[in-house]
């Protein structure tokens, strides 16, 4: 197979349909005007950039002058496709959710193609039926159907994590839990979402997640508090400015539990919170030499935070001014020796973990003294819930719409979790209502679901990210609209 030849248009790389064409090709070459470049060469260049960034001084202007964001974005475009090619060629199953998240930033003239263009790569549908493209339906219906498929196949509400976006759904009546895949994700969001497999916040919740009509989602849940104190958004930029924001967050620690609920000092709980209690480790194998694996259970290059992460935090919070002596401008070129010291690598590793966990997000303290990181759109008074099957908590906001009786004829059960075996009396004493509930056929609902909540986004709450930390919470039911 000859492979794919690039169109001279610059946006070729960013189009979602290109993904499938490059992934399934046995051999790929990129042609631009009269220049032809092998795909392997681009992969090696992207890998070299990734490694060089780990040896850059955080307090230097060197990477901003010599590389810039455009080159980093280009490297991500190449790396995302190559990692998918590795899985495809290994015949390991590709999962719809990971594909949608990974290539969400690609462009498409028809917003529905942000889903349809990737369906040909999906090799594992879980418990849901195979999803098919239907261009006759509306964008709202496509994204609603997509979310129903994802929730059923993954049997988890962690699929709600990430930027919900409203690029195409802003003027529609689509519920807040439906992700608008036409909107771009936040910087480093895909890396953050891959690390969610390290948490298990809602794995011990029992019950059914049901859909009433096409708008009300009903999951069992735990409530873990309200947002009471809120910090500024952390913008991913020069380390000096990021330190200022993080320093302002530390001013909110007077409102947190000390000692913390995890029996740590509040200072330790703080640095673990802002990096999501994970640390980044640099893979020594080149991208093309990596062992392919199923993306659905891949935490990326993150692991639980260790002593190295704490040392990285201590190194990160203080500016290293010694590098100024190693930077020079000769002619029009900036020259700077790489920082390959142990402290420098720990500092950079923490910086990346911090950027992924907290970049574009905000620090908060709850009314119960818990601290966490959440979406930039949350406000004081928002509620924190752990939803059935979700690996992480969610920030929810009570809806202002008036209570109304649900007219759903048959609420659809999307999945069930850890339900205990039920015994039904036989003969004339059988309870018809119980039989209907077990069959999923409950007739018209007619119940008033209140209060209802809108999904603001997923959150990290230190001390509530694992099932054994949530024992004793009272299980309730929430209604998401």
What descriptive keywords fit this protein?
481 residues, alpha+beta, nine-stranded mixed sheet, 18 strands, 18% strand, disordered N terminus
What does this structure look like?
The strands form 5 sheets. Strands 5, 10, 11, 12, 13, 15, 16, 17 and 18 form a 9-stranded mixed β-sheet that branches. This protein has a 3-stranded antiparallel β-sheet with strand order 4-3-14, covered by helices on one side. A two-stranded antiparallel ribbon has the order 1-2. It has 481 residues and is α+β, with helices and mostly antiparallel strands. Helix 1 (16-24) packs across helix 4 (68-90). A hairpin with a 4-residue loop joins strand 10 and strand 11. The protein contains 13 helices and 18 strands. The chain is globular and about 65 Å long. It has helices spanning 16-24, 39-53, 62-66, 68-90, 96-102, 113-116, 139-154, 189-194, 239-250, 266-274, 307-316, 342-358, 432-439, and strands spanning 29-32, 35-38, 207-212, 216-218, 220-233, 278-280, 302-304, 327-330, 333-336, 361-366, 371-375, 383-387, 393-398, 412-417, 452-458, 460-461, 475-477, 479-480. Mean pLDDT is 84; it is low at 1-10 and 421-439. The chain has a domain at 202-263 and 359-481.
Strand content: 15-25%
Low-confidence region ranges: 1-10, 421-439
Tell me, briefly, the overall form. globular
pLDDT averaged over residues? 84
Helix content: 25-40%
The N- to C-terminal Cα distance equals: 48 Å
Largest sheet: 9 strands, mixed
- Give the number of helices: 13
Q: Give Rg in angstroms.
A: 24 Å
The overall strand count is 18
Assign the structural class, choosing from mainly alpha, mainly beta, alpha/beta, alpha+beta, or little secondary structure: alpha+beta
Protein name: Heterokaryon incompatibility domain-containing protein
Organism: Apiospora phragmitis
Pfam families: Het-6_barrel
């Amino acid at each position: 197979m000859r492979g794919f030849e690039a169109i001279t248009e610059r946006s070729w790389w960013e189009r979602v349909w290109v993904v499938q064409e490059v992934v399934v090709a046995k051999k790929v070459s990129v042609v631009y005007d009269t220049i032809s470049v092998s795909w392997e060469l681009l992969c090696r260049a992207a890998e070299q950039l990734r490694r060089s960034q780990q040896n850059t001084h955080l307090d230097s202007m060197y990477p901003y002058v010599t590389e810039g964001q455009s080159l980093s974005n280009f490297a991500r475009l190449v790396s995302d496709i190559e990692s998918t090619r590795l899985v495809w060629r290994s015949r390991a199953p590709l999962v719809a959710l990971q594909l949608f998240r990974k290539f969400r930033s690609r462009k498409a003239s028809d917003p529905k193609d942000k889903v349809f263009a990737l369906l040909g790569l999906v090799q594992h549908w879980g418990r849901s039926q195979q999803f098919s493209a239907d261009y006759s339906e509306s964008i709202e219906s496509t994204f609603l159907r997509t979310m129903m498929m994802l929730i059923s196949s993954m049997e988890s509400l962690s699929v709600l994590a990430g930027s919900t976006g409203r690029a195409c759904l802003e003027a529609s009546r689509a519920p807040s839990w439906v992700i608008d895949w036409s909107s771009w994700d936040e910087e480093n969001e895909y890396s953050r979402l891959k690390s969610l497999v390290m948490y298990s916040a809602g794995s011990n919740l029992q019950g059914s997640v049901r859909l009433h009509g096409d708008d009300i989602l009903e999951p069992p849940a735990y409530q873990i508090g309200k947002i009471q104190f809120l910090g500024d958004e952390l913008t991913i930029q020069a380390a000096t400015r990021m330190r200022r924001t993080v320093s302002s967050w530390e001013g909110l620690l007077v409102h947190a539990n000390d000692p913390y609920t995890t029996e740590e000092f509040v200072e330790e709980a703080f640095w673990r919170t802002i990096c999501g209690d994970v640390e980044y480790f640099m893979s020594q194998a080149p991208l093309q030499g990596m062992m392919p694996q199923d993306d659905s259970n891949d935490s990326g290059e993150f692991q639980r935070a260790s002593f190295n992460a704490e040392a990285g935090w201590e190194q990160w919070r203080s500016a290293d001014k010694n590098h100024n002596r190693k930077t020079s401008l000769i002619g029009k070129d900036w020259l700077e020796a790489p920082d390959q010291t142990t402290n420098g690598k720990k500092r950079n590793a923490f910086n990346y973990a911090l950027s992924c966990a907290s970049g574009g997000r905000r620090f908060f303290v709850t009314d119960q003294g818990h601290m966490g990181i959440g979406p930039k759109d949350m406000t004081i008074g928002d509620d924190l819930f752990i939803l059935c099957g979700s690996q992480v908590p969610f920030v929810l906001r009570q809806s202002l719409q008036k209570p109304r009786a649900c007219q759903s004829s048959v609420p659809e059960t999307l999945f069930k979790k850890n339900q205990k075996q039920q015994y039904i009396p036989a003969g004339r004493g059988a309870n018809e209502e119980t039989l209907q509930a077990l069959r999923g056929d409950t007739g018209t609902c007619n119940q008033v679901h209140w209060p209802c909540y809108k999904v603001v986004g997923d959150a990290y709450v230190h001390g509530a990210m694992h099932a054994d930390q949530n024992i004793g919470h009272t299980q309730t039911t929430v209604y998401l609209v």
